[in-house]
Write a structure and sequence with these properties.
This protein has 330 residues and is an alpha/beta fold. The protein has 11 helices and 9 strands. Strands 1-4-3-2-5-6 form a 6-stranded parallel β-sheet, sandwiched between helices. Strands 7-8-9 form a 3-stranded antiparallel β-sheet, covered by helices on one side. α2 links the parallel β2 and β3. The protein is globular and about 80 Å long. The two termini are 44 Å apart.
Length: 330
């Protein structure tokens, strides 16, 4: 497949459209995670549709002291990877093409959700992100746009913007892609030295520890639901040697504090251990949140949740998350 490289909106709009157009928005430095997004887009667009990959390092979403200047720019390699993954075109506009009048005076506000977690750590980041996503949606005019679940808060805000502002586009989430050792793929991983990368594994390790603790608790609760706490049933269980298992299951199911605290504690233990490594991990946040608004969930929460973490290793800041389901919806 020959992948066209386009640099202006005029070139993009001149393309003859057949079928559905699916767009993957990136800041370049493409890796296998992006390739997964592009392959998913190819499946949505179908053989008669079109997949467009945008490559644009957006200055609006970088704050003071962040890595805008050193963010990797590898357009030739990006074009090659995008083509192999199934892209029809790479749209790589200049800053002047996207912001022809300089920094825009009118921007999209991320609202309260944009001030939490990543927004608290990077003020203004989500306003800049939503502004460029809105512009790129207008410029590329897709039927569907695909985003990775690794940037869970970004994904939630884009979905909210599309719903609140009536964008006529389907937003598709694609699961996080990981290295064999569990580290979530990120363009920033290339900044890590070998020692820093070993420390960085604590992010995914913490999430997996929280997930495993949650799975064990849910298994015990399911066991407890199968074992009514009546005297007759207890005698019957005792006769077949299961009374201890039943008692343990009931104890875990009714223990205070709730299971959410145990999930947080299991994840935090891994991060605390990583803080003592050389080089150390410097935790920004560990949060268990409702994906609808990214507020912390309470002990009575049921349904889908996100366990999210952000930390620095050396000069590199990394984020990761996994979905969990609590309570009756499990």
């Amino acid at each position: 497949m020959t992948t066209a490289l386009l640099s202006t909106a005029e070139e993009l709009h001149a393309r003859v459209r057949r079928g559905r157009r699916a767009v993957v928005m990136t800041m370049g430095a493409l890796h296998e995670g992006h390739a997964t997004l592009i392959r998913a887009a190819r499946g949505i667009a179908g053989p008669d549709g079109e997949v467009v990959v945008t490559v644009f390092v957006n200055p609006l979403q970088f704050g003071a002291g962040e890595d805008l200047d050193r963010y990797p720019r590898t357009l030739d390699a990006d074009l090659e990877l995008a083509g192999r993954a199934g892209a029809d075109a790479v749209f790589a506009p200049s800053v002047d093409e996207v912001y022809p009048g300089g920094e825009p005076q009118v921007r999209v506000s991320a609202g309260p959700m944009g001030e939490r977690l990543e927004g608290a750590s990077r003020p203004g980041h989500f306003d800049g992100m939503l502004t460029v996503v809105a512009k790129l949606l207008h410029l590329t005019r897709p039927d569907a746009a695909l985003f990775g679940q690794k940037d869970a808060q970004q994904l939630a805000l884009i979905r909210r913007m599309v719903r609140d502002l009536n964008f006529g586009v389907e937003i598709v989430a694609v699961p996080t892609v990981r290295e064999e050792d569990g580290l979530a793929l990120s363009s920033r991983n290339r900044y890590l030295s070998p020692d820093e990368r070993r420390t960085a594994l604590a992010l995914s390790g913490a999430l997996f520890a929280g997930r495993d603790r949650h799975a064990a608790q849910e298994a015990l609760r399911a066991r407890a639901r199968e074992v009514p706490s009546t005297h007759a049933r207890a005698e019957a269980l005792s006769a077949i040697g299961e009374s201890r298992a039943a008692a343990d299951a009931h104890a875990v199911a009714t223990a205070a504090p709730g299971g959410l605290a145990a999930v947080r504690a299991a994840a935090r233990q891994v991060l605390d251990e990583a803080a003592r490594l050389d080089p150390p991990l410097r935790l920004d946040y560990l949060a268990l949140v409702d994906p609808a608004d990214f507020t912390e969930i309470g002990d009575d929460f049921t349904g889908e949740a996100v366990l999210a973490v952000a930390a620095r290793v050396g000069s590199t800041r990394l984020i990761d998350n996994i979905p969990l389901t609590f309570g009756a919806a499990s």
